[in-house]
Design a protein that fits this description.
By secondary structure, the protein is mainly alpha-helical. It folds into five domains: 120 residues, Rossmann fold; 107 residues, Alpha-Beta Complex (Glutamyl-tRNA Synthetase, domain 3); 89 residues, Orthogonal Bundle (Glutamyl-tRNA Synthetase, domain 2), CATH 1.10.1160.10; 39 residues, no CATH class; 91 residues, Arc Repressor Mutant, subunit A. It is built from 20 helices and 13 strands. The strands form six sheets. A three-stranded antiparallel sheet has the order 3-4-7. The chain has a two-stranded parallel sheet with strand order 1-2. A hairpin with a 3-residue loop joins strand 5 and strand 6. Helix 1 packs across helix 10, helix 9 crosses helix 11 and helix 17 packs across helix 19. The longest helix is centred in the first third of the chain and has 16 residues. The protein is elongated. The structure holds one RNA strand.
Length: 508
RNA sequence: GGCCCGUUCGUCUAGUCGGUUAGGACGCCAGGUUUUCAUCCUGGAAAUCAGGGGUUCGAGUCCCCUACGGGCUACCA
């Protein structure tokens, strides 16, 4: 029984471009399912279409999975007991299986040219046929080993004429796909067309290759996108033809665009200003660059967490889940049936949650790189303190700069709104007094600074806010930032005095 | 056009065995905390469960129909 088989699942993308987040989610669910069931997760590259091959795409896929932490146990770059994992390198394998089907009368040679195929479709369309398929109703009209004599077929083959091999779909049979997510799906075989299994270029099509490889690689569960559901009956039929035990199927719902309807595409990201790809991608042909989650400052664990919850949930109210937690909680029964619209806002929220939980030291390393790009080289300890103070108010490490630039350079200008509100009559004079007050503090610590300012306001009978807000304006250039006494301490007495002077002089 | 899949707050979703004031989260709004912004806390608005018919004492949950949305319909995957 297949239920007792060892769980082996595969993610099988074709290298036609960068993986988008829908693909990453499919990979993730495969991974989670495998790990949850102590199984094996395999990466297999389906590069049977030589025309659509895009240089760099395979490397991109591997790097993206690596970044996301979706590690496979077998794959093209790491090998495994079922090598190779590149279908182009398995090319010689497939022909014999197609031949076997022909020998058994379950498939046939077809010699029709593309023009003849087009003409068939046009004729059927013109005649008002409900479908324009190459199937049991039309194959008798075409040039194939069903209509041509054995002699003629042999001659054409020997002459090296181009041919494809098509499956011969039986008539009036009920084909049942038992889907783990959708349940029982029934299809009438007469509705299926005689799909090409083997192309004239000597390569199998996806349909043949995926069945052969899944069987040979002992795949127990096929977890893939919903766009494959219509061809699942064909695959079920192929397993039957080969007399192989079919794997279990699970067809995942699609990821939809955030506004309107339709599946998420590359264009949506550009249009709405969020990445649809895990990593940045540069189109080798056009040079066009598409942004990636990694480059946009998303943490891989946050990214994975967010993606995991698009179509699946643990059934509890917990939303922040580590990869390990996802593994232990994952089940196919809790995968939804309907497509999910991707929400860029919630993606940011997830990243914020993860950022706040990251150790300061880890964030400091990242922020230091950001600073260095700006030509700022600060002490490690200082950066660490800054990170600790501002991380609560940021979604990304990049945000730290906007929240903390004043720690590294004096304000070049002052927020006019704040100036208007906080820099009223008498304030410059008051700042002068504050300057003298701070000047006299021997140990320039936050506690002392604050205590002295409080004492000052009490003696003068003015509100603390008036002083603090004006001082904040002078030190940071606006009305934001962490505790002011702490800022002052970290800036140091000399710098604080300098900024007060500059403020009194420059704020109009 | 044909076939297949889907449809609970704006969004992600809970609700899997028919009996809930239909719950949570993001976002939004208000209040509180704070020297400020943000965080944080509290509260609020927000789904006649796509619509209509059944079945039932009782339906978001079961059945049927309709609408809408999506996918597929290549010698692409």
């Amino acid at each position: 029984m297949i239920e007792n088989r060892k769980v082996r699942v595969r993610f099988a993308p074709s290298p036609t471009g960068p993986l988008h987040i829908g693909g990453v989610r499919t990979a993730l669910y495969n991974y989670l399912f495998a790990k949850r069931n102590n199984g094996t997760f395999i990466l297999r590259i389906e590069d049977t279409d030589q025309n659509r091959f895009v240089p760099g795409a395979q490397e991109y896929i591997i790097e993206a999975l690596k970044w996301a932490g979706i590690n496979y146990d077998e794959g093209p770059d790491i090998g495994g007991p079922f090598s190779p994992y590149l279908q182009s390198e398995r090319k010689e394998l497939y022909k014999q299986f197609a031949d076997k089907l022909i020998a058994e009368g379950k498939a046939y040679y077809a010699f029709d040219t593309p023009e003849e195929l087009d003409s068939l479709r046009d004729r059927l369309k013109a005649a008002g046929a409900t479908s324009q398929q190459y199937d049991s109703s039309t194959r008798g009209l075409m040039k194939n080993s069903l209509t041509l004599s054995d002699e003629e077929v042999k001659n054409r083959l020997n002459a090296g004429e181009q041919f494809v091999i098509r499956i011969k779909i039986p008539e009036n049979e009920e084909i049942v796909v038992n889907d783990l997510i959708r349940g029982r799906v029934e299809v009438q075989s007469s509705l299926l067309d005689d799909k090409v299994l083997f192309k004239s270029d000597g390569m199998p099509t996806y349909h043949l290759a995926n069945i052969v490889d899944d069987h040979l690689m002992e795949i127990s569960h096929v977890i893939r996108g919903e766009e494959w559901l219509p061809s699942a009956p064909l695959h079920v039929l192929l397993y039957r033809f080969f007399d192989w035990e079919a794997p279990q199927f699970a067809h995942l719902p699609l990821l939809l665009k955030p506004d309107g309807n339709g599946k998420l595409s590359k264009r949506d990201g550009d249009r709405l200003g969020f990445p649809v790809f895990p990593l940045q991608w540069k189109d080798p042909k056009t040079g066009e660059i598409s942004s990636g989650y990694r480059e946009s400052g998303y943490f891989p664990d946050s990214f994975i967490n967010m993606i995991a919850l698009l179509g699946w949930n643990p059934g509890t109210e917990q939303e922040i889940l580590s990869l390990d937690e996802l593994v232990s909680l994952f089940s196919m029964e809790r995968v939804g049936k309907s497509g999910s619209k991707f929400d860029p806002e919630k993606a940011k929220w997830f990243n914020h949650k993860y950022l706040v939980e990251k150790p300061d030291a880890e964030l400091a390393v990242l922020f230091k790189k950001v600073l260095e790009k700006k030509g700022i080289f600060a002490e490690e300890d200082f950066v660490l303190k800054v990170v600790n103070l501002v991380k609560e108010r940021a979604n990304f490490v990049e945000d730290f700069w906007a929240q903390s630039s004043f720690f590294f350079e004096a304000p070049a200008e002052y927020d006019q709104q704040v100036v208007k509100k906080r820099w009223k009559e008498g304030v410059p004079e008051m700042m002068g007094e504050i300057k003298n007050l701070l000047q006299g503090i021997p140990v320039f610590s936050a506690e002392v600074i604050k205590a002295d300012i409080v004492k000052f306001t009490e003696e003068k009978n003015i509100s603390l806010g008036v002083v603090m807000n004006a001082l904040r304006l002078v030190l940071v250039g606006g009305g934001f930032g962490p505790d002011l006494a702490l800022i002052a301490e970290m800036l140091g007495k000399e710098e604080v005095i300098r900024r007060i002077d500059a403020g009194i002089k420059n704020i109009a």
